[in-house]
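pipeline/complex-builder :: batch 7 item 3
reading input block
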Amino acid sequence: MSGSTFGTLFRLTTFGESHGVGVGVVIDGCPAGLPLAPEELQHDLDRRRVGQSHMTSARQEGDRVQILSGIFEGYTTGTPIMLQVLNENARPQDYDAIKELYRPGHADHTWEAKFGRRDYRGGGRASARETIGRVAAGAVARKLLRTVGVEVIGYTLQLMHLRAQVIDEAEIERNPMRCPDPNIAPAMVALVEQARRELDSLGGIVELRARGVPPGWGEPVFDKLDADLAKAMLSIPAVKGFEIGDGFAVANLRGSQNNDPYTEVEERITTSSNHAGGVLGGISTGEELIVRIAAKPPASIARTQQTVSRSGQSAVIAVKGRHDPTVLPRLVPVAEAMMLLVLADHWLRQRAARV
Amino acid sequence: MSGSTFGTLFRLTTFGESHGVGVGVVIDGCPAGLPLAPEELQHDLDRRRVGQSHMTSARQEGDRVQILSGIFEGYTTGTPIMLQVLNENARPQDYDAIKELYRPGHADHTWEAKFGRRDYRGGGRASARETIGRVAAGAVARKLLRTVGVEVIGYTLQLMHLRAQVIDEAEIERNPMRCPDPNIAPAMVALVEQARRELDSLGGIVELRARGVPPGWGEPVFDKLDADLAKAMLSIPAVKGFEIGDGFAVANLRGSQNNDPYTEVEERITTSSNHAGGVLGGISTGEELIVRIAAKPPASIARTQQTVSRSGQSAVIAVKGRHDPTVLPRLVPVAEAMMLLVLADHWLRQRAARV
Amino acid sequence: MSGSTFGTLFRLTTFGESHGVGVGVVIDGCPAGLPLAPEELQHDLDRRRVGQSHMTSARQEGDRVQILSGIFEGYTTGTPIMLQVLNENARPQDYDAIKELYRPGHADHTWEAKFGRRDYRGGGRASARETIGRVAAGAVARKLLRTVGVEVIGYTLQLMHLRAQVIDEAEIERNPMRCPDPNIAPAMVALVEQARRELDSLGGIVELRARGVPPGWGEPVFDKLDADLAKAMLSIPAVKGFEIGDGFAVANLRGSQNNDPYTEVEERITTSSNHAGGVLGGISTGEELIVRIAAKPPASIARTQQTVSRSGQSAVIAVKGRHDPTVLPRLVPVAEAMMLLVLADHWLRQRAARV
Amino acid sequence: MSGSTFGTLFRLTTFGESHGVGVGVVIDGCPAGLPLAPEELQHDLDRRRVGQSHMTSARQEGDRVQILSGIFEGYTTGTPIMLQVLNENARPQDYDAIKELYRPGHADHTWEAKFGRRDYRGGGRASARETIGRVAAGAVARKLLRTVGVEVIGYTLQLMHLRAQVIDEAEIERNPMRCPDPNIAPAMVALVEQARRELDSLGGIVELRARGVPPGWGEPVFDKLDADLAKAMLSIPAVKGFEIGDGFAVANLRGSQNNDPYTEVEERITTSSNHAGGVLGGISTGEELIVRIAAKPPASIARTQQTVSRSGQSAVIAVKGRHDPTVLPRLVPVAEAMMLLVLADHWLRQRAARV
């Protein structure tokens, strides 16, 4: 199968290119009977949208979601939910200058190697705009998971050397970096502004948490909950690393440090620490799910770089246009969406686990 | 679908519990016409096998692979290849003492939460023994990929604070840690021995490299090559983190540092650095694939730990039996297998990419 | 997974309800590099469209297909192809009268039993209008298969007691019944007119043929070519039976009659008869594929019928509105589409069969 | 994906060749907590087994099923259930004479066209012996479905011109033809004996019924219950046609005859007839499921037939060995198994249909 479908029971297929007619998603497998209003979908799309601040690129679009099917009289019907956003503000001519050059760090060369051709307008399908379908579907998953008390949040944990020291969730949506530490957020903003002036871009880390996931979700041995989360996160543009719980830090831990002792609190079996990050053996433990992902600095920088043309000629390139010096604030809702999609799918799959 | 199947076109389904009758795998989708001898499969299984040294646990088994189907007159026929290993040396009585207790860091509690019951003998299916089927299938994938010049190697990069400084591939199979640095390997061995005496276990990092992968493999936007690798790696017991190329280090890089400039060498388009680790936009670049995974210290330690019983009573537990203080040397062939399986699948998928 | 996705490598997901905003399809896995123009898709949609004659229902819509993604500069790019048709002429108020009654022979009751609710407007997703996405995707498959010389045709073989005696393919599109026998077609037309006057509907049989399929397509043991064709056909509304080659007539044949003897003609191995209908062991033989499907008389009849209401009260119902006395002429392009989709998928799958 | 896996949530993968080491199946997705004993699996395998009477071929094998995994302390654990039967009585030398010739009506030529080679011993994987894995998995599905009151039965409805006039279920297992009509069964037996003497074989029809299926199972628009049943049935060797309810007879019916009027009996909505055969819109109605399949006369006949060799030389062939003049009695348990597998899968899928 080709690769634009994700999930087993809660299943989405995205479509669309950056500067084509539109982008969107078909969700097949959303249970019937979920109340769902357009504005509930729009909220997460607005969080993902560009042009919110100096932090993110200047393209102005409403990104108004249209619902074409699957909802009737305010409820999901069990049939495919089709959500689309038309590309109102496409400026494909911006890209004519670079259609013969491979941008370093971009997928121009690899897509062409794969398919023998590419839609060079704004990266075509290898554009962050592709994530609109994910976020729209994630908003449906969010609504669905709330019916069983599951919530997902994400935030910018780190931008270059700046790392949040406290996690104040109320702070996240108050600053353009979506940083949960009010003392660090201004420095992050300043660093982004500086990078923009220097025609450069910055890497960082996003952290995600899911609460309310009961023990028992995840399908070993291959479709483990953490394995599906890892795939979900690495499928997002710019993500280069994934870890759960203590993650790479376990490389320096002993078993006596890393094992989470069991205890019982109010008749619920729990652990007194959570090094595991909410998963053991690929199945949720009932503790908080904690995931971190590393995002590379955006490849589009206005600074001159060395490259070659499609015919192999040496060339220099400076990527003009509307580009973010960091993906982090916009990555947050996209990564949340992917986590929500994995959880919604595994919730439904768990329904088949027992006689 | 339940979770014991992996891959789209080169597709395996594993089965078996640690102390049941046997473990194995059915591979469906291996192309016809591949020459394949039993000893070629046995080689990787022997690398995975326990009892090779003081580094790994003391269980003695031949792990002789049996081929039940799919090979005729020395060649694959295109039909399912069934490979199994009988459990010759099972000692389920070892586990009677702990069948009512949840071992910290193990999947006892989560499997029970999922299915309402568990096979408590040696962890049942949540045992490292489950990986035999992966390694057997990986050996088939290795043979298949060699027909197009792709090779995969893995090694122990790091054990606790000890990190290989040089990568001498000839050294890997010469020391029990599968460490490529002959100067570091002895210290790693000593650290493992010390942990064993201290009834404790150790974490670490394995690095994997794939060479010869041509540009063009990977299926955006969800089945990206790195996304499928991430899932494959996180599906392995004990793995808590995945990164590709510079991985988490990109969080501290600027775009001008992280982008790999294109150049042309001998009429082949290449990059003068490989921060990306061989993937851009989820598609192979033609450069070396470089992946690292973090492995937690094994949960089975003989030291006393706090836990609860199935009925919620507070208890202490010390996990006796044949257990490794580190999974690293045995993780290497398992992780290689998972990388090989992903690559074999994407090679076949790429055949459908163009008219 | 939910059930609106079809195919393994050439893979479509349809969406949309009869009287919602629109209907359509996302095709994922169409190889890159196929030249494709909108009018090539429109042709088959026009063949499926209502209102072409007295034979079919009176709803007037352009059914103009819009391409939202996946095609660039006249060629497929390898990314998802999204095709949609907006519902321009929906009259949901037509259905208010029957929203509380279950129409006999329709899916009103079963959809409600499944999902707890239903979109009662024109049958919602259980409407023939859902097949627009199939036909649009089938048109892409038709273009793709032509690159390897495969052609598919269909026609009305039988309407009630009237059965075509000769198969003159040039005749098919010349009469409103798509009957290949010019001597029988007028009687079929008359029978349909009579049924309309009598407020009743008629059953029949469609036959399909595929030419140019090389030997070797089909994936035993479950995804046999004939098994996938059977599923494809039974997934079409109103189809109640499927047969290939001699089909149910084999029940009365002996092996000495039914076996097709092999012979060699012009260095090609062929058979001197084709009782098998082009498939042996689930794999194409290289001979013509011949399939027949039985279509029930449309359930919507204006005659009074006995039924019950949603609350279980006895009631009578007469289904008013724009309804065909026969589905046959419109079933032809839909069934062709499903056959084309199966063949396109198996062509791509066959590329992975050998080293 | 290759074609030896069937089902979405209740999912089986079969393996094995007729004269290899063994045949079997891995079932992934059977819910945990189902009590299951080996003899419950053996019962259906014995019904499928050869050598029961003069009706079926003379190969003598115990076909003893071995359970390798997935069952612990008498209950399914939720992990893959691996079931295998070793080939104890293989006589591959029987087939040396024909390894260079294509047997008419067999898959020798098509498998070779597909894979470039074939295991010619007894048809390799294209042997009825492959169905052992289906029947073993079907026995698990039968046990599972009984927990919700679903039962499936099958019988020989027709052999050539002989058709059962009454359906006395108690009679089915009393005669070697599995014919439910005690008056017709002896004539069927005599006809088979005559065909054996004449070195010929006979076609026929099997009918299947499922009771207790509640309304609501089936996943439109592609994975309709009847569509999945059609695929399941056509995947069985020798099956050339499928119909549900009135099937091909609907071609001669009017809507006023074919529609099943709704009525209410004891507070349950039902229909006063069942032309639909228990499915409307691809979803179960709650009425009995009624399916018929057409089986061709076995291709292996000892009579001389015209064929060609692998190199294209004209030749004659007479297929010697242990062959049935009819598949019907052994087809019954295989077809029941496939129906059970479809129903078990759709039961689990239905659990995800509503919030």
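note: Chain C touches chain B at residues 1, 9, 29, 31-34, 76, 78, 144, 147, 348-349, 351-355 (CB under 8 Å).
queue -> next item
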